[in-house]
């Protein structure tokens, strides 16, 4: 059992999601190999790491991310909603996250968009990834096929993956048409046969969002190639920590797709 653990928005089960505190907490776990984050653009074009299209739920501010400047978002508290100990946490920029994880974790970066909400999002994200020389260490994912196609047009070498909470019959053919080598799928839609079919076609599956031990064990039994995305890396660790080989240095790890 050597499924890769993906920390969903960092260690969001304990820390405020998509903040530096959650990212650091995820990095502190030796069995976390990957992290999933969400990226949007501010009004002045800065890629920021936040999930909702609005800042209302996870910050002390109000409004839509696309209508706010970087400095306006920066002044908001993004931590105290999760607990007093996180007061003062800020919404990080993509730059800050890349600086934190470079050489330590690989990233699943969700392009958080719908339709034409964020013109230039793909360019802005790819520019920052290239600036940190992290193209081999990321996969760009999205619910929005247009964003994935655009990203591939801009950078043919970037790995891309569709996010979906369904299993339509033509899914693999759609992924091939979009040149995706990754599938982020709601875990209830995965079974052993489908996981094997994906791998035969050069597509790595990631199951989301899996927080209970029973579901994690079920997925692990299906295939060791299913990446497990979770808000609770500690639960994953309780199951797998005794069965993992000694941690392999980052520079010796290989992609599995």
Automatic annotation (TrEMBL):
It comes from the Bacteria. It is an enzyme of class 3 (hydrolase). The keyword Cytoplasm does not apply. SUPFAM superfamilies: PLC-like phosphodiesterases. One of its GO terms (molecular function) is glycerophosphodiester phosphodiesterase activity. PROSITE patterns: GP_PDE. It holds the Pfam family GDPD. This is Glycerophosphoryl diester phosphodiesterase. InterPro entries: GP_PDE_dom (IPR030395), PLC-like_Pdiesterase_TIM-brl (IPR017946). Signal peptide: none annotated. Keywords: Hydrolase. Coiled coil: none annotated. Its EC number is 3.1.4.46. Residues 3-240 form the GP-PDE domain.
């Amino acid at each position: 059992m050597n499924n890769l653990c993906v920390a969903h928005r960092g260690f969001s089960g304990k820390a405020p999601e998509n903040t530096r505190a959650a990212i650091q907490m995820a990095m502190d776990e030796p069995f976390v190999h990957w992290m999933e984050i969400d990226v949007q653009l501010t009004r002045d074009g800065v890629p920021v790491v936040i999930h909702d299209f609005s800042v209302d739920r996870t910050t002390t501010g109000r409004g839509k991310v696309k209508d706010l400047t970087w400095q306006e978002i920066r002044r908001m508290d993004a931590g105290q909603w999760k607990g007093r100990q996180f007061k003062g946490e800020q919404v990080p920029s993509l730059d800050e996250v890349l600086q934190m994880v470079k050489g330590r974790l690989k990233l699943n970066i969700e392009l958080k968009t719908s339709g034409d909400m964020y013109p230039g999002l793909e360019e802005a994200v790819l520019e920052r990834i290239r600036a940190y020389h992290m193209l081999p260490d990321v996969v760009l994912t999205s619910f929005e096929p247009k964003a994935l196609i655009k990203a591939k047009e801009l950078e043919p070498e970037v790995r891309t993956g569709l996010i979906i909470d369904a299993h339509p019959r033509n899914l693999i053919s759609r992924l091939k048409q979009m040149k995706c080598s990754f599938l982020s799928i709601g875990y209830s839609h995965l079974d052993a046969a489908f996981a094997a079919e994906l791998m035969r076609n050069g597509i790595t599956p990631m199951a989301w969002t899996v927080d209970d031990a029973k579901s994690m064990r079920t997925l692990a039994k299906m295939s060791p190639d299913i990446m497990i995305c979770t808000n609770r890396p500690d639960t994953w660790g309780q199951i797998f920590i005794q069965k993992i080989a000694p941690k392999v240095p980052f520079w010796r790890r290989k992609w599995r797709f």
